[in-house]
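Example (one chain per record):
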Amino acid sequence: VRNERGALFRKAFRKLNDRQQKILYLYYYEELTLKEIGTILDLTEARICQLHAGALLVLRGMLQGS
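Predicted structure:
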């Protein structure tokens, strides 16, 4: 079951756009703060927060739909 869930997550993650993928990767795997990600992407911390939340909503929607 765990491998199956991991495969579903990876498939859904690949469907996100590049910016969404990058934000989630930097936040969860590189453990950067939203402010640090904003500096890297030349966006405000508030905008990164919005994009992060949106990416999670999209990801959850895809995972619930599968």
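Caption: The radius of gyration is 13 Å.
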